[in-house]
Amino acid sequence: MLKEFYCNEGIEAGCDEAGRGCLAGPVFAAAVILPSGYRNEALNDSKKLSAVKRKILRNEIERDALSWAVAYCDNSEIDTLNILRASILAMHRALDKLSVIPDRILVDGNKFFPYKSIPHICIVHGDASYMSVAAASILAKEYRDEHMCRMHSLYHLYAWNKNKGYPTAEHRMAIDKYGITPYHRKSFLLHKSQLSLKF
Predict the structure, then answer these.
(1) How many CB atoms lie within 10 A of CB 101?
(2) CA angle 170-52-84, nearest 5°?
(3) CB within 10 Å: which end of the chain, N or C, has fewer?
(4) Over the stretch 173-194, which tens digit does the pLDDT of each residue have?
């Protein structure tokens, strides 16, 4: 069972992102505020859950949360800002959309930029420690996967319905064979040949 809150006073929003290591598509982020006393033993880091379990939990989170929101930064923004800044901006955008203002923000990872005047706590493996961060990881993953499946219908040669834009061997082979799409991240190492370059 994950921890309910970092601190028992005030309202906490958990934040996490999905798609940071992908070669194509946006980075998605979610912010979730769970009610006091909330219990859900199935909540966990989205990477540790099956697609079926994530789908069930997504519905439960959206039903039970005091407030939740999902936002993203697209590949052009990632190329302009870099992936860390884009990931944090996506989290800020998700926080902007919450209908409840939190007193504190829990962030998965070790980097974050201040959001307004609200205190934040960075927690490595926070998505495997706190329920609100785990819930955010699930929503971010679910919404990003859906987005990449929709993009697959436009660019089916890259198998985004299966790899979701991550750097699988199949995805890299498709890039080498067909080139890149408008949705690939040009600032990333996209071609297999780039991986062997010495700088």
Answers:
(1) 12
(2) 55
(3) C
(4) 999 999 999 999 999 978 655 4
Low-confidence ranges of the chain (pLDDT < 50): 194-199
Superfamily of domain 12-152, CATH level 4: Ribonuclease H-like superfamily/Ribonuclease H (3.30.420.10)
Of 29, 22, 147, 139, which is closest to residue 93 (Cα–Cα)? 29
Which is nearest to 95 in space by CA: 57, 130, 67? 67
For position 192, what pLDDT does the model report?
59
Q: How far is CA 95 from each of CA 30, 78, 132, 136, 140, rounded to the nearest angstrom?
A: 8, 19, 13, 11, 13
pLDDT for res 193: 54
Q: Is the distance from CB of 28 to CB of 147 less than 8 angstroms?
A: yes
Going from N- to C-terminal start, the domains of the chain cover 12-152
CA atoms within 13 A on the CB side of 143: 25
The number of residues in the chain equals: 199
